[in-house]
Amino acid sequence: MNPILNLNEIELHPRPAEYAAPGEAADRFDARLGELSRPLGARLLGYNVTLLPPGKRAFPFHSHQQNEEMFYIIEGRGELRLGAQRYPVRSGDVIACPPGGVESAHQLINTGDQDLRFLAVSTQIASEVCEYPDSGNFAISTEVTPANGGESRVFRFVGRLENSLDYWDGE
What we know:
This protein has one helix at residues 37-40, and strands spanning 13-14, 32-35, 45-52, 63-64, 69-75, 77-82, 85-90, 94-97, 106-109, 116-123, 128-132, 137-144, 153-160. It is mainly β. A six-stranded antiparallel sheet has the order 1-2-3-10-5-8. A four-stranded antiparallel sheet has the order 4-11-12-13, with no helix packed on it. The chain is globular, with a radius of gyration of 17 Å.
């Protein structure tokens, strides 16, 4: 396995169908992603190259309780939403998005007239809680490995706090 990849040679792919933005959300969200982690043999960090068309966002405004992300803007211009603030970003900028609550929620938006291309790096802590302040949603995910040694899978639940049940509900 070659431990070196050139970012200019990474093949970018549309998001898998199960993660494609549906309906009206497709007007705001779009991205092409190029996986780097597996080809490089990475184990503890995730890497990808993301390409955002003008006017688009890759993901909803969100925060991570466990994982930290870093972005390096390769080319283009845009805007970073971070907590309650907005910051212009351009080629050469490095962005840190530490774990936390609403104050660390983040989103990159291509506000330019050319593609915005960036390198994303993240820790890969399997058990995670993400919050989505714009929608009031949350997501809980963890990697589950069956006791019988079967193939592991990701368990994910997306919900809203106002729909939460009491611990003893129905018992």
